[in-house]
Design a protein that fits this description.
Length: 395
């Protein structure tokens, strides 16, 4: 028992140290912290307000224009993420072996195709995303002459973020389009940040990294289930696959060419981890006429070329690799958080946008009632998306 606890502490030491500092900060500043709902802690400051005033004045026309563009992006994003959430529930219930497309992305979580989220990537990315999100609200608000009363840090359970508090009474007196532009600004800026990270990764970092590396095969992180060929043969997850039917392959694309004409019950010889395995292909559940190996979360195995294995070359490779890895996580987190904030939930910007829309459509009283019904419906969908995969495993 003690060894298990010690192993856990060593594995997650940086996360534990960080949250100890968070708890210490909350304790030391408890008199200045506003507690809401027992799990939400707000620490208010005036930090950054003068910066918002400066740039919202200097670029007022551009800020207002982008704010209005953000309205369209916001409502399109709301429709998209709402449909996605509904489809996710349908797939979980109706499609065998479907995986939830909704999950909490926290340090240590294994995301298919990306691997395990490093703590420092998560911390820096969340800080950047939160600052961009909240300061965008503030800049658009100031461009429309709406007062920003406070900025600050919010602690919501294990999740840490930033917030900006505009003058709500002044904001409610503005036109609907002004309210929408202020509310949508945060999510819109997160989507823009995600696109910038994607472009940097695609056109700068990936090409540079490609010149520093070569592929030597591919690996996989999980099985579809234990009845498929790779699991039956005992080829462990993480094993490097380097060939098929006597042909050496440097990546999964080359390997898959050897499977194109293979049918269920055909035999193939797979080279994995320096050994040869004879496998009988199973039936592909989505394309019954195709053979199937039963593996997923596939990644090409990449190694540095000789020029970047030591000295200044290895340092350059490390910098590019870390930058590329961070950009991938920044893209995923910023895009996901931006869309999540557009859900019509009471606790996020999409909920406020829906509330404003329903008040305009139905009047204050009926609109508020409809807004609460919509918010509760999507909150139930969100909770179901998070817990249903675990419940289905018990069935």
């Amino acid at each position: 028992m003690f060894e298990a606890i010690l192993s856990f502490v060593v594995m997650y030491k940086y996360i534990l140290i960080f949250y100890l500092f968070v708890i210490l900060f909350i304790v030391l500043h408890r008199k200045k912290i506003d507690v809401q709902g027992k799990i939400i802690f707000l620490y208010r400051t005036r930090l950054g307000i003068s910066w918002m005033d400066k740039y919202s004045t200097k670029y007022r026309e551009w800020v207002i224009l982008l704010g209005y563009i953000g309205i369209g992006v916001g409502f399109i994003g709301m429709a998209f993420i709402s449909f996605f959430l509904l489809k996710n529930i349908y797939d979980l219930i109706m499609v065998p072996q479907a995986q939830s497309g909704v999950s909490l992305v926290l340090p240590g979580v294994n995301v298919p195709g990306l691997g395990i989220l490093p703590f420092w990537h998560w911390l820096v990315a969340i800080f950047v995303i939160a600052v961009v999100h909240e300061f965008s609200h503030g800049i658009v608000a100031r461009a429309h002459k709406v007062e920003v009363k406070n900025t600050g840090v919010v602690f919501f359970g294990p999740i840490i973020g930033a917030f900006v508090e505009p003058n709500e009474k002044k904001m409610e007196k503005e036109k609907d389009t002004v309210q929408y532009s202020i509310l949508a600004a945060g999510a819109f800026s997160n989507i823009i940040l995600a696109m910038m990270a994607f472009l940097l990764l695609t056109f700068v970092l990936n090409p540079i990294e490609g010149k520093m590396t070569e592929t030597t095969g591919f690996t996989f992180e999980s099985y579809y289930n234990m009845s498929y060929p790779f699991a039956v043969a005992g080829i462990a997850t993480g094993t490097v696959i380097t060939g098929i039917d006597g042909k050496q392959t440097k990546n999964f694309q080359e390997f898959s060419e050897g499977l194109v004409n293979k049918k269920p019950r055909d035999s193939v010889v797979v080279e994995a981890g320096g050994k040869a395995y004879t496998l009988t292909l199973a039936t592909n559940p989505e394309q019954p006429e195709k053979g199937f190996l039963g593996i997923k979360d596939i990644k090409n195995k990449v190694v540095q070329t000789q020029a970047f294995e030591s000295g200044i070359g290895s340092v350059a490779y490390y910098v590019v690799e870390i930058s590329a890895s961070f950009s991938r996580w920044l893209f995923l987190l910023s895009f996901g958080i931006g869309l999540f904030n557009l859900l019509p939930l009471p606790i996020v910007d999409g909920g406020r946008m829906m509330q404003t829309f329903m008040h305009k459509l139905k009047g204050a009283e009926d609109g508020e009632k409809r807004y609460r019904q919509i918010g509760m419906f999507f909150l139930m969908l969100l909770v179901a998306s998070l817990i249903l995969p675990y419940l289905l495993k018990l069935v």
